[in-house]
Specification:
By secondary structure, the chain is an alpha/beta fold. The protein has eight helices and nine strands.
Length: about 240
Amino acid sequence: MLVAAAVCPCPPLLVPEVAAGAAPELDALRAACTDALGVLAAARPDVLVVVGPAEENARGPHPAGTRGSFRGFGVDLEVRLGGGEPGPAERELPPSLAVAAWLLERTGWADAPLEGLGVGEPLAADRCLRAGQDIAARAERVALLVMGDGSACRTVKAPGYLDERAADFDAGVARALGAADVAVLKALDAELAYELKASGRAPWQVLAGAADGAGLGGALLHDEAPYGVGYLVAAWS
């Protein structure tokens, strides 16, 4: 059963070495992510599952020990998903789970067995919900760390340029995450999310499937779009 969840965005810029001179601009976002992970630790889960968007070659399960890096972003920095023996060299974490691994290392996470799951952006809502239900059934006390960004179309300088629908989309997600509103997350429009380049849609719907019937309450900890991309942080417990 799901007992806690943290929702964080996954820009590699969260890692100060990647952000370089711009690192201080995201200090408040990093602090909010740390607070959200604190809620997970306080829940004392039997297992923590990290879910994030992934390209086709990185979809599916990633066991504890799977390695990731930020070399693709110009930084020779490696991370590992939790403890245990290093995973096979040919299997790397997708960037979203590499950011999650960095956050977990930064907060000294060592409270429960851990595994990752990369989900594809096109994954249909019903399959996301089923994946979440399967995760929630794995143990008596399950926690989720859900990685994903909001729309990338909030300003003319955003990666997806300005789309007038983006602010309303992000605001609706923010309200749902803050209220732990499973029904709203279940009903997110996958096509609209794709058009707005919102990488969090599928992971949020995995969360909705896992949380269905769990009776969790939510708190929105951060809601900004500093680079024209919606960055949302929430904690459910």
